[in-house]
Structures are given as structure tokens and as C-alpha cells.
Amino acid sequence: MLAGKISLVHRILKSLHRTLKFWVQGDEIDDYLGLDMEEFYTSRNVAQFEIIARNEYTRSEVKNPVDCSLFYLALRKKTVLQGLWRMASWNREQGATLKLLANNFDDPRWRTTALKNAYALLSKRRFCAAYAAAFFLLADRLQDAVNVCLNQLKDLQLAIAIARVYEGDQGPVLKKLLEDEVLAIATQEGNRWLASWAFWMLRRRDMAVRALITPVSTLLEPPASPDLKSRSFLTDDPALVVLYSQLRQKTLQTLRGASKVTPKVEWEFVLHNARLYDRMGCDLLGLDLGESEL
């Protein structure tokens, strides 16, 4: 049974950078990180974020525009949000909100008004934080919206998703988020998957390959001190070999990164993961590593 599951994972990982999966469960957005960078900012993929926005709006019997405001404003679809508010006749804030949304937020005066609303909401209880982030976006303050996601909502994935939709993959806010938050977490936890993804998003394809084998802490500038958790055996994942073999031949940059990994280190990486497979009762997969993956 276990061998069959790992064999399935083995095949799935081969298409990792060609696969897009969205799974909405409660307030969490999972697997939003799996989308390939070059494919993200297209009408088809932005439509996936619209699905999340609609799910947030329809998940309760009382359809409240407040629940999906952050998502539609991240998509820069204020008119859709206005339409939802027109149907919310039961909400006592309907009139004031429609009057506010009718203004031109390219005007500094109305951006200031949106900021005031955002800070007022932040001063209230935690459940207002997502709505506050929406008003920050209305004021074109993406960094502030991201900070709310990180500090008040404690939701890194939501922060990443909003940054990608709002400014695209080459924006300064996303870059800062990847460098300051994502890589820091990857280093602390010894999460090679996350580190490789972050470097890939930063267009450091060479580092994305090296992060799968080399300790993540040594790849940062300046090098960081690894957390004890990052050295735990629980961070070992034999499926990393599959991703490594797929990425290292993908582009000239990834090939350059792989060339900085010595044959000795590479072979030790293979042997270590082969032993992991053996311990898991998947000795045939372990034997296959040396023959087919590297």
C-alpha cells in the first residue's frame, strides 16, 4: 500500500511545474503556491482566483460582500463588488459603502479616506482584519494589505496570493515577501520544497536547484543560522530527488546551479534518499534512484 502511494507521488512530482491546483477549505487557500510562474498571470489563472472570491461570497446562507471584498479588490474588480453590495439590502452599511465605492480612488483624497477606514477597522476585533486589508488595496497600499495578512491574519499563503494577483510576479512587494518571509521560514523549518519554490519565483533558478540538496541557510546572503528543527530527520523527503532531476535540466540557469553541486554531494544525496525509501519499505524505488533519476 505504502509503496503504491509513493510510486504515485513519484509520478505526480514529474509534472509539478505544469500543474495548477486550487483547494478552498474554510479560510485557507492551499496549493496556491504550485502554479508555474510563467503561466500565472493569464486570464485563465486569474479566473481561478475569481472562483475563490465567489466561494467566499456564497459559502454562507447570508451572502455578505464583506467576506469577498479582499479578493475582488485584489483582482481590481471594484465594479463586481459594487454589484454585490447593491444586493445586500439587509446590511445596514449598504448605503455608506456604495457611496464610498462610487468614488474615484485614483484621486489622493479618496485614497486617504480608504486608508482611514482601513485603520479604523484594524482597531476593531480580529475578524475585521481581512476587511481592513481590502480597504488598504482600495487605497493602492498593497504592502499594508500584505502586512495585515501576515501579522493579523497569520496567513502567509493569502499574502502571497494577493500580491501575485494584484501586482504580478515581478512586483516589489512579492519580491520582499519571498526574501523576508518565505525564505526565512524555509530556512527555519528546513523546508527545501518551499525554498526551491521561493528561489524559482525570484528567478534564481540556479539557487532553486541547489536548495534541494544544499542546506538552505548557506544559500542566503548573509548565511543564516539554521534552526534545530531544520536538522530534524522529519525534514527528509526522498521525493526531492525527483524534483531535482526534473529541474536541473530545465534551463541553462538550472544547469548552472546543478554544476555547483559536486558529484560527491550529489551521490550522497541519492544514497541518503535511497536509504529513506528502503526504511519505508520501498526498496525498489530506492534502487531506481541511482539508475533513472541522476
UniProtKB/TrEMBL annotation:
<protein>
    <submittedName>
        <fullName>Putative wd repeat-containing protein</fullName>
    </submittedName>
</protein>
<dbReference type="GO" id="GO:0043291">
    <property type="term" value="C:RAVE complex"/>
</dbReference>
<feature type="domain" description="RAVE complex protein Rav1 C-terminal">
    <location>
        <begin position="47"/>
        <end position="289"/>
    </location>
</feature>
<dbReference type="Pfam" id="PF12234">
    <property type="entry name" value="Rav1p_C"/>
</dbReference>
<dbReference type="GO" id="GO:0007035">
    <property type="term" value="P:vacuolar acidification"/>
</dbReference>
<dbReference type="InterPro" id="IPR052208">
    <property type="entry name" value="DmX-like/RAVE_component"/>
</dbReference>
<dbReference type="InterPro" id="IPR022033">
    <property type="entry name" value="Rav1p_C"/>
</dbReference>
